[in-house]
Design goal:
The strands form two sheets. This protein has a six-stranded antiparallel β-sheet with strand order 6-5-4-3-8-9. Strands 7-2-1-10 form a four-stranded antiparallel β-sheet. β5 and β6 form a beta hairpin. The chain has about 190 residues and is α+β, with helices and mostly antiparallel strands. The protein is built from four helices and ten strands.
């Protein structure tokens, strides 16, 4: 009986966040493909207490762009993975937000301001001259959760039992066309 109780406590997961991807924009600026969005939602009960106790909160973002092909599998042309990490420092009474995509570390006194900044993403996916004309599909996946200690043998069982971080996904298709006289489009919005 004790073993069952210990296993239940190890695998019990309090959802950290229930979120959705909002305000997704895919734009062309200066020959670059840029993505911007934010993740909307509210922290679950107990997460703020965990944060204030020093347990970091993570947003893991994975963004993939596939070139659609008619008679073959779609080809992955861009893959970007980055993380936002929010941690509270009790001694200074500050929230530290580390954003991997731009290498910035921001500080906040207020949790609401820190969460707003943590949820916003603006990312440059690179120059368009390396992408040929055609149809593309963009997949965005966001995993949200608290950092938890991993016990090696039990960590292998988590996926089998369906215990995961909360995820939000987004899918968008777009067409990339070149100007009449060649070159790279410099401004505008990618057509859906």
């Amino acid at each position: 009986m004790r073993a069952v109780l210990i296993l239940f406590l190890l695998f019990a997961v309090v959802p950290a966040f229930a979120g959705e991807v909002r305000d997704f924009h895919l734009d062309l600026e200066g020959g670059h493909l840029k993505v911007s969005f934010w993740v909307e939602g509210a922290l679950a009960e107990g997460v703020e207490d965990s944060l204030r106790a020093g347990v970091p909160l993570f947003y893991d973002f994975t963004l993939k762009v596939y070139r659609k092909r008619s008679w073959w599998l779609d080809k992955k042309v861009i893959k970007v993975h980055f993380r936002h990490r929010l941690q509270y420092d009790n001694l200074q009474a500050l929230f530290y937000l580390q954003r991997e995509e731009d290498g910035k570390v921001l500080t906040f006194r207020n949790l609401a301001e820190a969460m707003t900044s943590m949820a916003k993403v603006t990312l440059d996916l690179g120059r368009l001259d390396r992408l040929p004309e055609g149809r593309y599909r963009l997949k965005l996946k966001t995993k949200i959760g608290l950092k938890k200690p991993r016990l090696w043998p039990l960590a292998l069982l988590r996926p089998l039992l369906g215990v995961r971080k909360n995820t939000a996904s987004y899918l968008r298709e777009f067409t990339l066309t070149r100007p009449l006289f060649g070159g790279v489009p410099s401004r505008g919005t990618v057509s859906p």
